[in-house]
Amino acid sequence: MNQPRVYKIEGRSPSARMRSPRPLKAGVRQRKGGLEYGEGPLTRISSKGRGGDREPSTPSEEASMALSRRLTVSIVTTLALFIAAPAIAQPVKLVTESYHVPARDPGIQLYVRNKRPEAMTTFAPDRIVLFVHGATYPAEPAFDLQLDGLSWMDYIAQRGYDVYLMDVRGYGRSTRPSEMSQPAKENRPIVHTEVAVKDFGAVVEHILTRRGVSKINLLAWSWGTVIAGAYTTQNNDKVGRLILYAPVWLRQTPSLVRVEGPLAAYRTVTMDAARQRWLTGVAADKQKDLIPSGWFEAWWNANLEADSVGAGQNPPVVRAPNGVVEDGQRYWGADTRYYDASKIRVPVLLVHAEWDADTPAYMSQAVFARLTGAPAKRYVVIGEGTHTVLLERNRIQLFREVQLFLDEAR
To answer: Is the pLDDT of residue 15 over 70?
Structure first.
């Protein structure tokens, strides 16, 4: 099976512009902005001296330089595999804690989960990460679901990080507002983005105090990128690095989160509807191998475990607040930005999957172009993945790209 493409674009100046890389023929590579694009691994090109990399002047010199590069890559790869072997043979033992912290509003408790190496006794700002979920499903089934014995939280924690996830009120194991105990149509939409940002800020403050640090890294998915992005514009001093996976921006195509009729307090999603949304935009001949056997069912069951009321309905459903849907109509579907990306002043990684129909490529490209205040920014495209690539066969590509970005802070 051919490895899907991984494209990267980087920028370090306010004038850096986003250009979508064009797919190249097999075996062809193209240099752009200090990077090479094409099939297979992406190679970073370093600058040496005032003139940068010198191009070979003769065929023989070109062959010599190519051989040198191949030998260098071979040596580095061999050393990397040798060094990494012990870590694979002896997995890091992790400690897990699940608990609640108070929101800024009385009576609201926010679910928090923490994983870290058992041997970790000191906590550095650049080694702390907080996950936040999207518009429909809670955090734990996405970020800490054991698939083939590994979750994304595990992957990061095993590499020496103190990792957290949280549920905004109305989601998962956080307090469900009283409106969710009533028929949905009896109340207006609840839990808007403004409320979510406030809940997110409460958990960030909890972690800062708990670990005695001044800042942490933020890792957000889908609607969570709006929450984390808006929070960062208001609190750059509390954020080390910002990772926006499947970022939301002004919409040019219909949303896949569809609600018929007037918006109620919350919506319900069945298993069939969840599967249909997940596979939207994926060619029929690619769907079978996209999600390994049993993974979708494991994810769905984990969502039901976090919503006992929804699980008790026939058919079982996951309940999700509609405040985000109303915000989508008010902001992203009406050419109005909820936050100003140019006010972000920390390094940013944007990640998009090739078949993502929920947040198409034009969204992440627009965000990238507006990150004019970020000291460094990077845009990565993962091939053959959807909005939920974190739970698909190519998830490790996503994990590696995010890990690379986090580790660069060391």
So the answer is: no
Domain extent, residue 235, equals 89-407
Position 71: which residue type?
Answer: L
C-alpha span between 193 and 294 (Å, rounded): 33
* Mean pLDDT within 163-191: 97
Q: pLDDT category, 12, cuts 50, 70, 90?
A: low
- Judge whether 280 lies within some domain: yes
DSSP state at residue 160: T
Contact between 196 and 174 (Cβ < 8 Å): no
* Domain total in the chain: 1
Q: Using pLDDT thresholds of 50, 70 and 90, give the confidence band for residue 332.
A: confident
Helical H segments across 291-390, by residue range: 295-305, 308-311, 323-327, 361-370
Whether 115 is in a domain gets the answer yes
**Any residues with CB less than 8 A from the CB of 217 and at least 6 apart, and which?**
126, 128, 129, 130, 239, 240, 241, 242, 243, 406, 409
Taking 70 as the threshold, does the pLDDT of residue 410 lie above it?
A: no
Q: What is the pLDDT of residue 24?
A: 36
Distance CA 21, CA 34 (A): 13
Return the structure tokens found at 145: 């679901």
Query: Under a CB-based contact definition with an 8 Å cutoff, are residues 382 and 353 in contact?
Result: yes
Phi and psi, residue 358, nearest 5°: -75, -50
- The angle at the Cα of 33, spanning 390 to 3, to the nearest 5 degrees, equals 35
175 neighbors 108 (Cβ within 8 angstroms): yes
